[in-house]
Design brief:
The protein has helices at residues 20-42, 48-54, 58-89, 94-109, 112-120, 122-125, 144-147, 150-176, 179-187, 192-222, 234-245, 248-277, 279-293, and strands spanning 128-132, 138-143. By secondary structure, it is mainly α. A hairpin with a 5-residue loop joins strand 1 and strand 2. A two-stranded antiparallel sheet has the order 1-2.
């Protein structure tokens, strides 16, 4: 018997799928980009020469330093408060849980701009602040305006507000850790505080770090609201300059460029932090691949 050969399949060339809509999108984007670049280069009202002169000026750099200082201090307060409030929120103690919930509700429910104004005008509520016996005599007191300077008001407004948001970030990270980790640590005789510090928080960092990086970037930009307190951070420093030379747009561009540069640096730092805390997960995945192949 003769073998029946299979019919030969004629090979056809592979034709890539045509996507005319994509090319239209590219063309529109290219035209818009060209228009944007053209207006940047031809519109003299941008005042790029003035931007170049003030980009490294002493007034702007001093304001930039104060902006960084505000960001670091406010975020430090916010992170410490956030961890404490998150632990209190997850506590079985009703008083601690209720206080934490009330704090988060209040500071997340009111705008940070309004909170800054309240701290700036605290002397209208309490002309003097002092220490003493509750409902009794005061041992020492001082004018509120002396104690709560614009810098202190800015730190209080930004830091206390940030604590409420960081509390939810930390709480989400703690809840992402398997309950068995805590039970195993307690079975080994570890205290709750040590379990939180040595077992839960290190594992929760993988979830906490990305939104914390976003909060730092947001905080850097939110410091511009402090200008309402007449504190000379970056934006208010630019406002002081253009209030004398009337070059409003170039000075606002100068401040914006510094904000863009600082947020870009923070984005890079956040990227490397995320890679660092994801190393263990990647290592587990690499070890799991050969075993699955076998």
């Amino acid at each position: 018997m003769t073998a029946i050969s299979a019919p030969r399949i004629q090979e056809e060339p592979v034709v890539p799928l045509r996507r005319p809509g994509r090319w239209v999108t590219y063309a529109v984007a290219a035209v818009l980009a060209a228009m944007f670049v053209h207006t940047l280069l031809t519109n003299k009202n941008f005042g790029w020469d003035i931007v170049g002169n003030y980009l490294g000026s002493g007034e702007i750099l001093a304001g930039l330093g104060k902006t960084i200082e505000l960001t670091v201090i406010a975020m430090a307060i916010g992170i410490v408060l956030g961890v404490a409030l998150a632990v209190m929120r997850l506590s079985s103690n009703p008083a601690l849980k209720g206080f934490s919930s009330l704090y988060i509700w209040f500071f997340r429910g009111t705008p940070v701009f309004v909170q800054l104004l309240f701290w700036g005008y605290a002397s209208a509520l309490y002309p003097r602040l002092g220490l003493g016996i509750p409902f009794g005599p005061q041992f020492v007191s001082a004018p509120t305006n002396v104690l709560i300077t614009p810098f202190i008001a800015a730190i209080l407004g930004l830091g206390l507000n940030e604590g409420a948001y960081m509390a939810e970030v930390v709480r989400a990270g703690i809840l992402s850790v398997d309950r068995g980790q805590t039970e195993a640590a307690q079975a080994l005789g570890m205290s709750r505080l040590r379990t939180l510090r040595r077992v839960v928080l290190p594992q929760a960092m993988r979830v906490i770090i990305p939104p914390t990086g976003n909060q730092v970037i947001t905080m850097l930009k939110t410091t511009s609201l402090v200008s309402v307190l007449a504190f000379p951070e970056l934006l208010y420093s630019a406002q002081l300059v253009y209030s004398t030379n009337f070059k409003t747009i170039p000075l606002l561009i100068t401040a914006s460029l510094w904000y863009l540069l600082m947020t870009s640096v923070l984005n890079v730092g956040q990227h490397f932090l995320e890679r660092r805390f994801n190393r263990s997960e990647r290592a587990v995945s690499r070890r799991a691949i050969p075993s699955e192949g076998r």
